[in-house]
Amino acid sequence: MGITVFLVLWTGAALFATIKPKTFWNITQGWKATREPSTAYFIFSRIGTAICAILGLILLISPYLH
Asked: What's the burial of 4, exposed, middle or buried (CB within 10 Å: 0-12/13-18/19+)?
């Protein structure tokens, strides 16, 4: 049960960060930055968080595939 809750939160945060990387950056890192990072940072952030979201979805549905 606890692992499922963790995976749902992880996948939700990763999906949010994939869809809105600038908003996610503002929430998590923007308060301590003096300027916004480059566009490349947001592109690579979107790729990384998409991978985390896919991994979370796979881990969430894997018990139902057996």
From this structure: exposed
